[in-house]
Write a structure and sequence with these properties.
- The chain is an alpha/beta fold.
- The chain has a single domain, classed as Phosphoglycerate mutase-like (Rossmann fold), CATH 3.40.50.
- The protein contains five helices and six strands; from the N terminus they run βαβαβαβαββα.
- A six-stranded mixed sheet has the order 3-2-4-1-5-6, sandwiched between helices.
- Helix 1 packs across helix 2 and helix 1 packs across helix 5.
Length: about 170
């Protein structure tokens, strides 16, 4: 199984006079445009997605919707899970992933620092590894075992700028 770990795109900042909560922060127009290019870059790499799991927060859901659109999927192909919300348990996410049959590639859309911790747990369970994804950044993990936990190898990591450049090729 290939896991594509994707941080949500650029979202509205939380400010003193905003009428929304952190959960309701939407992507900015620039964030949406850049994420479309990131998704197109993923397509240029020949990636295919069987499943898109996303945090239920607005900015992550919008990011997942852009991915689905570029990959020819519908909004029905996106599943929201509290296991990708900020502060969620990676153990419960692993259990959710292990319960999926026939999934060869999945995009997981979420937030920092949780995604960095997730990558660390899958790639190096002893905690000696740190990773920070930029907004719209993507990394690929090739899962090598799922029992008792999910473990794998970091196949590649790209910044949003690198992905956008790929989309132009």
């Amino acid at each position: 199984m290939e896991l594509y770990i994707i941080r949500h795109a650029i979202a509205q900042p939380l400010g003193r006079k905003n009428d929304f909560t952190d959960e309701a922060r939407a992507l900015t127009p620039d964030g949406r445009d850049k994420m479309r290019d990131v998704a197109r870059g993923m397509r240029k790499l020949g990636l295919e997605l069987d499943l898109i799991l996303t945090s239920p927060l607005a900015r992550a859901v919008e990011t997942a919707e852009i991915l689905a659109s570029v990959f020819g999927m519908s909004k029905k192909d996106i599943e929201q899970t509290g296991n990708l919300a900020p502060g969620a348990s990676s153990g419960e996410l692993f259990a959710e992933l292990k319960g999926r049959t026939g999934v060869e590639s999945a995009a997981l859309v979420g937030h920092q620092p949780d995604l960095g911790h997730l990558v660390r747990k899958v790639v190096q369970s002893d905690g000696g590894f740190s990773l920070e994804l930029k907004k719209g950044g993507v990394c690929c993990i090739t899962v090598t075992e799922t029992v008792p936990d999910i473990h794998g190898a970091l196949s590649w990591l790209m910044t949003p700028k690198q992905m956008r450049l790929l989309s132009k090729l």
